[in-house]
Amino acid sequence: MTTRTGAPARPLLVVFAGLPGVGKSTLARQVGSALRVPVLAVDPVDRELGRHEVTEPRPGHAAYGIVAAQAETQLGMGVPVVVDAVNPVAATRRLWQEIADRTGVPLRVVEVWCGDETEHRRRVESRLAEEGGAGTPDWAQVVGRRAEYEPYVGPRLIVDTAVPGDPLPGLLAYLR
């Protein structure tokens, strides 16, 4: 059920997960636009922290914390939120469950994959060329992150962006 604006009638935490270059940011933005809710992305926060020369013992940890704080604030005000992050390990995934539990809102996880490795590599290399490399991983870094990516355990919708067709209708149905 949605409101007249298309937003969910109740607060909802939607978390996108998946390796760089699989299409999760594109899908997160499409869902945010369709539902007219904020999309909070970890990568831009991480890049901005780097621009300000913020260093930390666990790279990326602060960006997740900042996005989590923003998400919890929005959810506390009754505003649904979409989070866009790699979420490669159980610790980051627990963060979102804890926020959902504290705020009393449902959590919907969307794990995005690109089942065609050639296409995945093309996307990563195209993005690297377009963005100029500042904080954008190259293919070797994505392969390294894939090796560290822990299997996702728990309820979620899995979307393979290499499969032809528009996944948005199915995604929106999952979120209702």
Describe this structure as you would to a colleague.
The chain is an alpha/beta fold and 176 residues long. The protein has helices at residues 24-35, 42-51, 61-76, 90-103, 117-131, 139-148, 168-175, and strands spanning 13-17, 39-41, 81-84, 107-113, 157-160. The chain has a five-stranded parallel β-sheet with strand order 2-3-1-4-5, with helices on both faces. The longest helix is centred in the middle third of the chain and has 16 residues, at 61-76. It is globular.
Brief characterization of the structure:
The chain is of the alpha/beta class and 176 residues long.
Sheet of most strands: 5 strands, parallel
Strand % is 5-15%
Total strands: 5
Q: How big is the Rg? A: 16 Å
* Strand arrangement, major sheet: 2-3-1-4-5
Low-confidence stretches: 1-5
Helix content: 40-55%
List its salient traits:
disordered N terminus, about 180 residues, single chain, alpha/beta, globular, 7 helices, 5-stranded parallel sheet, 5 strands
Layout of SSEs?
Layout: E1 13-17, H1 24-35, E2 39-41, H2 42-51, H3 61-76, E3 81-84, H4 90-103, E4 107-113, H5 117-131, H6 139-148, E5 157-160, H7 168-175
Parallel strand pairs: 1-3, 1-4, 2-3, 4-5
